[in-house]
Design a protein that fits this description.
With 242 residues, the chain is mainly alpha-helical. It contains eleven helices and three strands; from the N terminus they run H-H-H-H-H-E-E-E-H-H-H-H-H-H. The protein has one domain. The protein has a three-stranded mixed sheet. The relative contact order is 0.15.
Length: 242
């Protein structure tokens, strides 16, 4: 597997800077019984679960996505749909469509802000899986579309965007970041050429970049996400009262 190539070394994160292009849709999950080493990593597991709970209780990106999934008939249960596991290489997380589970790589997620972004990113894949008949394996355009949406809406590009604005005032940086991340994510989970990944992303880019469901806007910050969550709840209330 090419895990090591696409993500930062686990020890490299200096807080916010860590590069987590290694989001994988279908991580290679270990099927063997837990070894002594794995059991001794209990503290990783514990820390992962505490951070996950914090994300689910307080992060507006996650709260909105979970509310939207519930509305679409896909209720998310914390114990059933999230799994803290050790992952090979430097992968941060993944969505396992076979079990509808979000895998969180407890050995590589060390900060709450990182957990927030991984959970939001993977929940967007779960949301797409719930609302659409996504052909994750055979249709690379479907995968490309979900990766574009995940990069656009999860906050993955927010920090880089801020840095770019501060340093260069680059216009269109957000789009460039989303395109780049989507391509890298595809290359991390599929054995396709860079040209194939780029072609798939470019073909669906406009349609999928402009599909802002369930946020209704690009949430550039937690404040944006909070507003989107409020609007979503009100939209819900409004239709309920009709
Ligand atoms: Zn992804």
């Amino acid at each position: 597997m090419e895990d090591g190539k696409v993500a930062s070394p686990p020890g490299a994160e200096g807080g916010e800077e860590e590069d987590d292009f290694g989001y994988r849709l279908f991580p290679d999950r270990k099927k063997e019984p837990q070894s002594f080493l794995v059991r001794s990593l209990f503290t990783f597991h514990n820390r992962c679960q505490v951070m996950l709970r914090m994300t689910l209780e307080t992060n507006p990106y996650a709260q909105l996505l979970i509310a939207a999934m519930k509305q679409s008939g896909c209720t998310v249960f914390n114990d059933r749909h999230f799994s803290c596991e050790n992952c090979d290489g430097c992968v941060s997380g993944g969505f396992d469509s076979a079990t509808s589970q979000i895998v969180l790589c407890q050995n590589n997620i060390r900060h709450q802000s990182h957990m927030n972004r991984v959970v939001a990113h993977e929940l967007i894949h779960a949301f797409d899986h719930c609302r659409a008949h996504v052909d994750w394996f055979k249709n690379v355009k479907h995968l490309a579309c979900s990766e574009i949406r995940a990069a656009n809406l999860s906050g993955d590009c927010t920090l880089m965007n801020e840095i770019a604005r501060f340093k260069f005032g680059l216009k269109g940086h957000h789009q460039t970041c989303v395109r780049d991340r989507a391509i890298r994510s595809i290359l991390a989970v599929r054995k396709v050429s860079r040209e194939t990944a780029e072609k798939a992303v470019d073909e669906v880019f406009d349609a999928c970049f402009n599909d802002l469901e369930p946020f209704g806007r690009i949430p550039h910050s937690k404040t944006d996400a909070k507003r989107a969550y409020k609007d979503f709840l009100n939209r819900d209330r409004y239709t309920a009262n009709l």
